[in-house]
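Hey, weird one. I pasted the Protein kinase domain-containing protein sequence into the form twice and got a warning about non-standard characters only the second time. First submission, copied straight from the form history:
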Amino acid sequence: MMTRGGDAVPGGRAEPIGAGDPARVGAYRIIGRLGAGGMGTVYLGESDHGRLVAVKVVRPALASDEAFRRRFRTEVQRARQVPPFCTAEVLDADPATQHTLADQMVGTVAYMAPERFDNAPGKSLTVAADIFAWGAVVAYAGTGRSPFDGGTPLATATRIMTEPPDLTGLAGPLRKLVEAALQKRAADRPAARELLDLLLSTGMAAESPALRNAAQEVQTTFAGVPRPIAEPGPTRGVRRRRLIAAVLTAGVGMAALGLALRARLDEPASRPGDSRPQGSAPSTARPFRFAAGADVADPLTRPEVIRANSDNSSSCRYAGALVVTVARDGTYECGSTSQRFAGAHRISVEVDLRTAGSCAAVQFLGTEMGSYGVNVCAHGYVFNWYEGDSVEELGTYLLPDRTRLREPHRVAIEIRGDTAALHRDAREIAVVELEKGVPPGGGKVLIGGYGDPAGGKAPYQVAFRNLEIIG
C-alpha cells in the first residue's frame, strides 16, 4: 500500500535499505526503511517526479493468502473514504491488510483490543475492536505514548488485558471518551456513531475550522446509519438498509483529530458573567415579510395550514408559534399541508430549538409512497427518506457554527428538478440528490419535531414561525 503524508522525510527516521529489501515497488523507487511491524515492512519511496511516499510491503505469507487479500481490498476502500487531511492519503494498493485470520493474528499489539487475544472457538470480532484501537490512537496522539506500553509486545498485551490505561496528560471530555473506548469488555464501549456525536456535542468542532471540516467529511460516510424513532404519532421504525461498511473508516478519521481536540480541552465552557445556560440565547422572533404571491404564507400562530394535535405527552400546539414537544426519542409529526407542490418550489420556515437534543423536522414531496425530510439540529442537517414505517438516512451536513438554543434561524429547502438545496438563513448548507425519485404530481409538506438522544434528554421542544411555500 502506498500512502502520502507530506513531502518531507521525517527527520532522521529513515534507515538505509539492506540486501533483502526491494529496490523498487510499483512506480516507486525505495530509498529508505521506515520501520517494520506485525504485517510487514514500511519503506520510504520516491516517484519519478520526486514525490515521497510511505510504501508498506506485507509479509509474503500473508500476501499469498487469497482470503487475506480479499479482506485487504475492503480495508483499502475504507481508507480511501477518509479525508486526506485526517490521515495519510492512500495513493495505490495491491491487496494485503486485515486484523484477523483463522488461527492467525496480525497487527500492532499496542492498538489491539483485549478480545483480539481471546482464542476461544467460535468467538468473532466486532467493530468494538476498532473502537478500542481508536481510543489507543487518540491517547497516543494526545500524550505521545501508548496507554498500555509495557516495553515488549508480551508485556503490552498483558497490560491491555489486565490493567487500566495510562491516560496521564489527557483531561476533560476527550479523556472520558478515550476511557470509554478503552473499556475491557467490548459491550461497554460506545459505537462509532456515538463517539462522533459526543465529539460534536462538546462544541469543539464548531470552534476549529480544520476539525469541523474533518468531522463533516467523516459524518458523510455515515449515510446509512439510522437514528432512533419515537412511538408518538405516526410512528416511524428504522430499516437498516445501508448500515455503513466504513465504521472503521470513521473511527480512523476521528483518531486523526485527537491533537486538535486536545487543544480545546482547557478552554472555559462559558464566559464570566454569562448567566444563561451554555449554548442558549434569548428567544426572539425575527421580523419577516412574506413574498407577494406565495402559495402558503402562514405565521403559524393558529391552525390554518398545519393542524394541532397531541398523543402520549407529545404535542403540536399554538402559543405565539407552533410549538412541538416530543416526549420520547425520535420523530413526532404535526400534520401536512392539504396542498401538493410539484416542480421547482421553495419551502422556508423559522426554527427555534428550545431544548438540548431537539431538532426541527420538515418533510417534503410527501406521497403515499414516501417522503423526503430534513431534521434541523443544533450541529447540522440530517437528510432522510421516509417510507412506510422505516427511515433511511441519506446524509448529514454540519453547520459552520453550532446553533444555540432559542436562537431562531430561517431554514429553507429549495427543490430544483432532482436535487434540493438546503439553506440556513441566506447560506446554502448543501445540495442533495433526490435519489428516490421525484413524484410527477409533487407532494405535501409536513412539519414536526425530532428528539436526538445523543444531544439531550426528553422531552424535546422546538418552535416554528412564518411558514412560506413558493411554487
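That's the output from the first submission. The warning seems to come from a hidden character in my clipboard, not from the data itself. Confidence is low (pLDDT under 50) at residues 4-12, 81-87, 97-105, 221-282.
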